[in-house]
Amino acid sequence: GENVEQHPSTLSVQEGDSAVIKCTYSDSASNYFPWYKQELGKRPQLIIDIRSNVGEKKDQRIAVTLNKTAKHFSLHITETQPEDSAVYFCAAGGGATNKLIFGTGTLLAVQP
Amino acid sequence: NAGVTQTPKFQVLKTGQSMTLQCAQDMNHEYMSWYRQDPGMGLRLIHYSVGAGITDQGEVPNGYNVSRSTTEDFPLRLLSAAPSQTSVYFCASSSGTAGQPQHFGDGTRLSIL
After folding, report:
1. Which of these, A8, A25, A33, A95, is most buried using a 10 Å CB contact count?
2. What is the rounded distance in angstroms from the CA atom of residue B63 to the CA atom of residue B83?
3. What are the distances in angstroms from CA B87 to CA A2, B12, B44, B81, B105?
4. What 3-state DSSP class applies to B53?
5. Which DSSP state fits A69?
6. Is the pLDDT of residue A8 over 80?
7. Each residue's pLDDT tens digit, A26-57
8. DSSP secondary structure code for residue A27 in this structure
9. Cβ-defined contact of A98 to B58 (cutoff 8 Å)
10. Where on the phi/psi map is residue B47: left (φ > 0), alpha (ψ -120 to 50), or beta?
């Protein structure tokens, strides 16, 4: 069935360093790849997304890259700040149903 | 504009009891879905709906029922609660166009004793 794998499960970086989270997906029909940030006790919130007709997208310190041939996509956060500390989820889906399958999450800790 | 509203926020049930988790959205979104979130497991899709009168199973549908009689509401029913259903439940909605962001509610924290 459809599957999304996400790595690493935990990531600790120093403030100012970059952080990279990687995901792979199994369903070749997937065409929409969002990333969500979830703070403790809160709802997941969309931070950036990319569609299959684009290879890279950037929004200030956040960027996402997509390799459809290899079926993997990555989140890049530059100049990390303590407020970036949260759990990050990737997801893959779209298509006719708009159904999303999520990865298992990455706990990012930015040390001041 | 409230977005996606879930009720209740917290609930404790005994094994075997039934319960309905409510989800309503005021954005006229066609697509709605239910997820459960467990530590280390991420968000797993339970059921989803692409419009009123249409529902389908996700990754972990067993033990849950849904219906979609209106565009706005998408309740999730537990017919006979089990301790394995202890989790945080999130409802989400998006427009019907493919590849659109999903908007999440604040979640319902459910404990089954």
Report:
1. A33
2. 11
3. 22, 11, 11, 12, 15
4. coil
5. T
6. yes
7. 998 899 999 999 999 999 999 999 998 888 99
8. -
9. no
10. beta
Residues of B whose CB is below 8 A from A100: 33, 45, 102
Contact between chains at A98 and B96 (C-beta distance less than 8 A): yes
Please give the span between the terminal C-alpha atoms of chain A, in angstroms, as a whole number: 41
Q: Report chain A residues whose CB lies below 8 A from the CB of B50.
A: 96-98
For chain A, the average pLDDT equals 94
CA angle B20, B24, B29 (to 5 degrees): 135
3 state SS of A82: helix
| Side chain identity at residue B26, one-letter code | D
Report chain B's terminal Cα–Cα distance, integer Å: 36
- B99 lies within 8 A of chain A by CB: yes
Cβ distance A11 to A58 under 8 Å? Answer: no
